[in-house]
Design the sequence.
């Protein structure tokens, strides 16, 4: 009789441990934040799987590297990767591509983006430095811009922003544009700023 009770206790304890483990593992697949903005993530020509996964963990996009690699391996890959793609089992992540990612995506959603939604980026004239745009601090908070004080076209010119040509403006009658190094576009004679086309 004692042996049956001991077996029942061990069985019940094993079930409890398994339930606790499944809850803990399920939590590792969940999104790190409940709401967050989308960030551009660049996967460069020489990127490795470990570098990508390490950065995603460091900047707060995933909770667990091993769990995320599992999601990458078993999520549905609906695109065929090129010969320079990163391989994870039968799935692929395209290199030299930009992905829109967010810290409110769970591991499966983020894996689906990396496997299927890369936008090819021609870096023949150079790509933006870093993996994320806008830049992030460790943990995932947006890095404050040193150009936050720029409020109008004239300020943009002062920080040596990228200017549209004066000749083009004279020819078309359109006002000149200036894009700050942190990616905001100002129009001469207008207040406020906007995202550049394709930005």
Sequence:
């Amino acid at each position: 009789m004692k042996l049956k009770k001991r077996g029942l206790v061990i069985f019940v304890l094993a079930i409890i441990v398994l339930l606790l483990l499944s809850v803990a593992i399920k939590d590792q697949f969940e999104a790190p934040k409940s709401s967050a903005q989308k960030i551009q993530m660049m996967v460069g020509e020489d990127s490795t799987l470990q570098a990508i996964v390490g950065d995603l963990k460091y900047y707060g996009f995933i909770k667990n590297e091993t769990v995320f690699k599992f999601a990458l391996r078993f999520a549905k890959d609906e695109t065929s990767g090129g010969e320079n793609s990163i391989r994870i089992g039968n799935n692929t992540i395209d290199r030299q591509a930009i992905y829109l990612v967010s810290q409110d995506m769970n591991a499966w959603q983020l894996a689906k983006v990396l496997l299927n939604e890369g936008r090819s980026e021609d870096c023949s004239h150079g790509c933006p430095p870093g993996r994320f745009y806008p830049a992030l601090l460790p943990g995932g908070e947006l890095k404050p811009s040193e150009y936050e004080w720029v409020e109008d076209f004239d300020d943009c010119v002062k920080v040596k922003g990228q200017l549209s040509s004066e000749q083009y403006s004279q020819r078309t009658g359109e006002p000149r544009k200036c894009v700050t190094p942190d990616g905001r576009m100002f129009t001469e004679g207008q207040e406020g700023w906007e995202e550049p086309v394709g930005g």
